[in-house]
Design brief:
The complex is a heterodimer of chains A (343) and B (551). With 343 residues, chain A is mainly α. Chain A has 17 helices and 2 strands. Chain B is built from 6 helices and 35 strands. In chain B, strand 20 and strand 21 form a beta hairpin. Classes of the chains: A mainly alpha (343), B mainly beta (551).
Chain lengths: 343, 551
């Protein structure tokens, strides 16, 4: 079997947020026949540029694997395709394809990169770190690996180490918006809110079509008491992805903070979390969303003077997670209001 | 009763079918199966080790094996127990519908080495060709091989044989096969997840009572293992070099058939929430996963399913082994019809299997329960999430089995018409089939998580002639695993492979059973042994247990 040198563009598959990034590594693929190589080239180009052809790309990759089940690159691209589709039921299959790509070719660095991304998507930061560290042995100082490792470290509650790694990535590529976004998150976790805001503002100014950047900058503004900026940024976030209830919940919070209680109510209504019937759904995320919703609803009802409704929302939040400290201010304020009313 | 050789065929008496009673209002059809557990004397209760930590391994249950360990011609029963420190159970068949617990004297309680593991699956095969069936028990932890000493006792030979597997691997279904056709049995071990008991994440909502068993997407898969028999009581781990060590797999079920009919066994692995594998045997000690090309990795829509149990057999009488896989609730169980040329077609809906959509299937077997000459289907069900009702009120942890009758190549759900034993809900996991009373009608045993097993005796109400075939290899392995047997009667031709590996965590009777319908005589039996030897028998009587010895 001949090994063909193939450059894989490590694009931010699944987000399309920051546009194509640099090529981290030249990798070897297992595709042996020219015709298969041509087909892979076609799919690769398509996959990284035209998401609307995803289904066809996936079918083509399966057809390639029917001919050459040992093509590491086909397994890699299929894993990326599944991840880009973004459905919870295919997340496991995406990981499986990427792991098979690595089994077939342990030096296949792009597979390691995307596998790490998948692990982060699934909340498995430790496994992501393992893959990224293994990858960095092969491609030392690669900014994409460094930035993603920084994000993994942040998720593992090591924001200091995270900042260090991401700054290293940015030294190699100052225009690397994704790294800057991760840097903003890490600085925020470190309590360096103003620095975080500066980094996130830079990211947002580059105009990414990614609601998360707006969401996190909006939250940072809220924490800083900059409510007008928060309103503006979170509104942009809902414009980019109107289906994101988490952005709407924060937007409701911004409106409430400005005293615009009617508008806050409207956003909360639109954010109402839907109980999902599918067991393949990410419960942790759903649970977080539901908790945030009821917490914000509790604060809003309190501010509206609807103490019973505030108490009800608080109880719902506590039923989801009684240990979350964020309920404490609501409990205290509700208790104080109730005591005041009794007096 | 001793089985005699082919030179001395004999006929077993079959209970006369009830005749007459052609009343104007016929009585309700007698139950196809009756629950014979209470009468059987089987008192085994599975212990899952269920805990507040919701360790996944607790809910996947344990298997069961039919094993004629004393070679008296009547299949005995071996139940695997789950939780650490619990004992397995071996029941000797008393030949009168009852069983006696002989676990202690046989030395297979599993309370020695590996006692701290969660035990899962079981395989049966004569790995040392001494004429007695051995046992291999898988676990989340080290697996155990018990050699049958031939005197009613077994010895733990795991260490010497080198088949323990990884100390913290989660092994599930397993099976003996002679993949290199060298005359001794090799061993395939399916592995599930890279899971750590002491690092079990919290899954489900954090409301009280809502913690649930995690989904496999949270964990990596682990590569299966293939042990090649060295012929001297030891095995070599050839997983990597043979090409089956794919870490993408999250395997729960295995079935083995010669799908491409090239004379060597191929392997199908049912994976949980990732695509299934079909390992084509290249005939040179290696395998190639051809699932993509064959069309057996995904469902009709190209999506991976949550595969649990599996079986392979020729359900439509075209001479080619098809594949059946049980899946998660709200997924159809999948029937892949072998089209020949390495291609399969998902015919699940077309074949009438729609009623499998809601329940969560585990153990399964294609077998002829009404002796009419085609293969019917049994699926035992049970959810994996014990508090599933909190999340999906329409679903339950315990569920009813599904029984399908094959009617001209299409399955008809006859669960409701098959007697009260089929109406009971259980947390079904293992399922294994044997004619334990040698009456010519195949019976079923089912394991349930944390519950007593169920022994379903086939009452043979639909009659039909039959033959049971026990293969004895000489150049081939001692029990002829992998031999292909074609049976021709006036009613048609059937093909089966000697193969006790199927279902989920379980092992079926090693004898072949053919339902023969109204045929009075078998015109021809054609045996292709794994050694390559062909053997033909002509004019064979029906309704007998036939020992065929490799020439």
């Amino acid at each position: 079997m001949t090994h063909t040198c193939v450059c894989i563009a490590v694009v931010l598959a699944g987000t399309g947020a920051f546009g194509p990034a640099s090529l981290p590594v030249a990798a070897q693929s297992g595709a042996g026949q020219a015709s298969i190589e041509e087909r892979l080239t076609r799919v690769r180009a398509d996959l990284f540029s035209r998401a609307e052809h995803l289904t066809e790309d996936i079918q083509e990759l399966k057809a390639i694997l029917a001919v050459d089940p040992r093509s590491a690159e086909a397994h890699l691209l299929l894993g990326i395709g599944y991840r880009t589709l973004g459905t919870a039921e295919l997340m496991g299959e995406a990981v499986a394809e990427l792991r098979q790509a690595l089994e077939l070719n342990p030096d296949f660095v792009p597979a390691r990169f995307y596998l790490a991304r998948m692990y982060l998507d699934l909340g498995r930061a430790t496994r992501a770190r393992e893959e990224l560290e293994a990858g960095l042995v092969r491609v030392p100082n690669n900014p994409q690996f460094l930035a993603l490792l920084g994000e993994a470290e942040r998720q593992l509650k090591k924001p200091g180490r995270s900042v260090e790694l991401i700054r290293q990535a940015l030294r190699a590529d100052e225009s690397f918006a994704e790294a800057r976004y991760y840097l903003g998150l890490a600085l925020f976790d470190l309590g360096r809110r103003d620095e975080a805001i500066r980094e996130l503002e830079q990211v947002v100014q580059s105009g990414p079509r990614m609601a998360d950047a707006y969401l996190n900058l909006g939250i940072a503004y809220l924490e800083a008491g900059r409510f007008d900026k928060a309103l503006q940024t979170l509104s942009q976030g809902t414009g980019i992805d109107p289906s994101r209830p988490d952005v709407r919940i924060q937007l409701a919070r911004a409106y409430r903070s400005k005293g615009l209680l009617g508008k806050a109510d409207e956003q909360l209504t639109r954010a109402m979390p839907r109980v999902t019937a599918s067991l393949a759904s990410p419960f942790a995320q759903h649970q977080q969303l539901e908790f945030d919703f009821y917490l914000e609803q509790g604060f809003l009802r309190l501010q509206q003077g609807r103490l019973d409704a505030a108490g009800k929302a608080l109880r719902k939040a506590l039923a989801i997670d009684p240990s979350d400290e964020r309920t404490k201010p609501l409990q205290d304020r509700l208790r104080a209001r109730q005591a005041g009313d009794r007096r | 009763m001793r089985i005699r050789s082919v030179a001395a065929l004999f006929v077993l008496c079959v209970p006369a079918l009830s005749s007459g009673q052609a009343a104007k209002n016929p009585p309700p059809r007698p139950a196809l199966f009756v629950d014979a557990t209470a009468k059987s004397g089987i008192t085994f209760v599975h212990q899952s080790g269920a805990s507040a930590e919701k360790r996944m391994v607790e809910t996947f249950g344990s298997g069961v094996a039919w094993i004629d360990y004393d070679n008296d011609g009547f299949p005995d029963l071996y139940f695997v127990n789950g939780a650490p420190g619990t004992a397995h159970a071996l029941y000797r068949n008393n030949r009168d519908g009852t069983f006696t617990d002989v676990t202690r004297q046989a030395g297979v309680s599993g309370e020695g080495a590996g006692a701290n593991a969660y035990k899962t699956g079981v395989a049966v095969g004569d790995y040392d060709n001494n004429g007695y069936l051995d046992l291999y028990v898988t676990a989340f932890g080290p697996n155990v091989l018990y050699r049958n000493n031939g005197d009613g006792t077994f010895r733990d030979v795991t260490s010497a044989a080198g088949v323990a597997g990884g100390p913290s691997e989660w092994s599930t279904s397993t099976g003996f096969l002679d993949f290199d056709r060298d005359g001794d049995l090799d061993l395939y071990v399916v592995n599930y997840l890279d899971y750590r008991l002491n690092d079990s994440p919290y899954c489900g909502l954090r409301k009280p009572g809502y913690r649930m068993y995690c989904l496999p997407t949270l964990f990596d898969g682990t590569a299966d293992r293939l042990f090649r028999n060295n012929g001297d009581g030891t095995f070599a781990d050839v997983s990597r070099q043979s090409g089956i060590a794919n870490p993408a797999g999250k395997g729960l079920g295995i079935s083995i058939c010669d799908f491409d009919q090239d004379g060597d066994p191929d392997i199908y692995i049912a994976n949980d929430m990732v695509r299934n594998f079909l390992y084509r045997n290249n005939g040179n000690g290696t395998f190639e996963d051809v699932a993509y090309g064959a069309g057996v990795g995904f469902d009709l829509n190209g999506k991976p399913q949550a595969g649990m149990g599996t079986d392979c057999a020729d359900y439509n009488g075209d001479g080619r082994p098809d594949i059946f896989v049980t899946n998660f609730s709200e997924e159809l169980n999948t029937l892949y019809e072998n089209q020949g040329g390495g291609i399969f077609e998902d015919v699940s809906t077309k074949a009438g299997l729609g009623s499998g959509y809601v329940p969560l299937g585990f153990g399964t077997k294609l077998f002829d329960f009404d002796n009419d000459g085609d293969l019917d289907l049994h699926v035992t069900n049970g959810h994996v999430i014990d508090n599933i009702k909190l999340y999906q009120p329409t679903l339950t942890y315990a569920q009813k089995d599904l029984l399908y009758e094959n009617v001209g190549g299409r399955f008809r759900d006859v669960s409701l018409q098959s007697g009260p034993a089929l109406q009971r809900e259980r947390i079904g996991r293992g399922l294994a089939v044997a004619d334990f009373d040698n009456d010519g009608h195949l019976d079923v045993v089912i394991t349930s998580v944390g519950q007593r097993p169920t022994l379903l005796r086939n009452q043979g109400v639909q009659g039909g002639n039959w033959i049971l075939i026990r293969a004895r290899g000489r150049k081939s392995n001692a029990f002829g695993l992998g031999a292909t047997v074609k049976v021709e009667t006036s009613e048609g031709r059937q093909v089966q492979e000697v193969n006790n590996v199927a279902s989920y965590l379980s092992s079926n009777d090693i004898r072949l059973h053919f339902g023969l319908g109204k045929a009075k005589i078998i015109g021809r039996i054609d045996v292709l042994w794994p050694s390559g030897v062909r053997q033909v028998l002509n004019g064979v009587a029906v309704n007998q247990i036939l020992l065929i010895e490799e020439p």
